[in-house]
Amino acid sequence: MRTLWGVAVAILIGLTACAGQAPMAVKPSAVTPGMAKKFIYSGKTTQADVLEIFGPPNIVTHKNGREVWTYDRISQEVTNSGGFLTILIAGYEKNRHSSATRSTMLIIYFNGKDVVQDYALSAAQF
Predict the structure, then answer these.
(1) Per-residue confidence band for 36, with pLDDT thresholds at 50, 70 and 90
(2) How far apart are CA 78 and CA 44, in angstroms?
(3) Cβ of 116: how many Cβ atoms within 10 Å?
(4) For 43, phi and psi rounded to 5 degrees?
(5) 123 CB contacts (<8 Å, ≥6 apart)?
(6) How much is the pLDDT for 75?
(7) Cβ–Cβ < 8 Å for 108, 35
(8) Of 22, 41, 65, 76, which sees the most CB atoms within 10 A?
(9) Looking at residue 26, what is its pLDDT?
(10) 19: how many CB neighbours lie within 10 A of its CB?
(11) In angstroms, how far is CA 26 from the centroid of its own chain?
């Protein structure tokens, strides 16, 4: 009887521990042309502002003693759909597959006071 209670308690604890875990969701990247135009202003936006909006850069380099941050994002969207229609014995099957790839590169040039001096943006979808 004690063994049965021990097993029941162990299962209950295990289920309770798993119930609190949520599946990991992929957060969409904020590096988009719209976000760059909305939040980056030459002479006004600071490195702290950029970090808050876009997160850490992929590459940090220096040019003429000033920092240059590069964000390079590639995303792919794949869509599959299909169906099957049956009328008595004959049937018709239709499958559709499509994909789109988006590439966005944002390069931000900072002045000596860690404020945006200029930025360049390249976006392509294929």
Answers:
(1) very high
(2) 39
(3) 21
(4) 80, 0
(5) 32, 33, 102, 103, 104, 105
(6) 79
(7) no
(8) 41
(9) 43
(10) 8
(11) 6
pLDDT in tens, 68-89: 999 998 877 777 766 655 666 6
11 or 57: which leads in pLDDT: 57
Question: Tokens 């964000």 map to which residue?
Answer: 71
- Statement: residue 17 has pLDDT above 80: no
State what percent of residues in the chain have pLDDT above 70: 66
Number of residues that make up the chain: 126
DSSP labels, the chain: -HHHHHHHHHHHHHHHHHHTPPPP-PPPP--SHHHHHHH--TTT-BHHHHHHHH-S-SEEEEETTEEEEEEEEEEEEEEEEEEEEEETTEEEEEEEEEEEEEEEEEEEEE-TTSBEEEEEEEEEE-
What tokens were used for 96?
């559709």
Residue 35 buriedness (CB in 10 A; 0-12 / 13-18 / 19+)? middle
